Amino acid sequence: MSELLHQLAQETARGIERQREEELNPKIYTKTDLLDLLDMFEDEYYLDNHVSIESTIKRIKERISDS
After folding, report:
1. Averaged pLDDT score across all residues of the chain
2. What is the pLDDT, as a whole number, of residue 24?
3. Secondary structure (DSSP) of 8-67
């Protein structure tokens, strides 16, 4: 039992450390990163909801390319 508590404490400490690191050095996303995320979202949304959001994704991509 104490081993499990020790492991839990270590994982919690690592998680807090990762969170602090992310706050100090936030990830900077490129347009390519954002377009990849949009494509992934489109695929997942379509599969989960059986609804196409292609027009919304297209508008977002157009706005990104215009900026």
Report:
1. 78
2. 86
3. HHHHHHHHHHHHHHHHHSPPPPPHHHHHHHHHHHHHHHHHHHS---HHHHHHHHHHHHH-
Instruction: Give domain limits for the chain.
Output: 2-66
For residues 57 and 38, the answer to whether their CB atoms sit within 8 Å is: yes
User: Considering only CA atoms, which of 44, 40, 42, 45 is closest in space to residue 59?
Assistant: 42
CA-nearest of 34, 29, 26, 27 to 64 is: 34
Question: How would you classify residue 26: left for phi > 0, otherwise alpha for psi between -120 and 50, otherwise beta?
Answer: beta
| Total-model pTM | 0.38
- Dihedral of CA atoms 25, 30, 34, 37 in degrees, nearest 10, equals -70
- d(CA 18, CA 16) in angstroms, rounded, equals 5
